[in-house]
Amino acid sequence: MSDYGYAVLWEKVRIEYFTSVGDQQRADQCKKYLQELEWRLAMLPSTDHLEQLEQSSGDPLADAGWIPSEEKHQFHAKNS
Question: Which residue among 10, 23, 27, 43 has its CA within the 20 to 30 Å range from the CA of 58?
């Protein structure tokens, strides 16, 4: 889990705590922090995407599934 992931969990705990003790102003501030952290976490590059780039055939149409698999083999034979 990334630092942002832990920070998201921490802010959720803070929101619950401040809500339970009646400090709504601090709970609302934590909600704002949480939204920003979740956005930052969503913007991080995923490892799945990096693995897909490494397994790329070099042809974006083939990688996107726009070329049938039999034509992918022909593409590789031509470019090898």
Answer: 43
Residue position matching structure tokens 């990334």? 2
Rounded Cα gap, residues 24 and 30, in angstroms: 10
Total Cβ atoms within 10 A of residue 48: 8
Asked if residues 78 and 59 have their Cβ atoms less than 8 Å apart, the reply is no
Residue 79 token pair = 């470019």
2-35 residue pLDDT tens: 787 888 899 999 999 999 999 999 999 999 999 9
Find, among 17, 16, 11, the residue nearest to 32 by Cα. 11
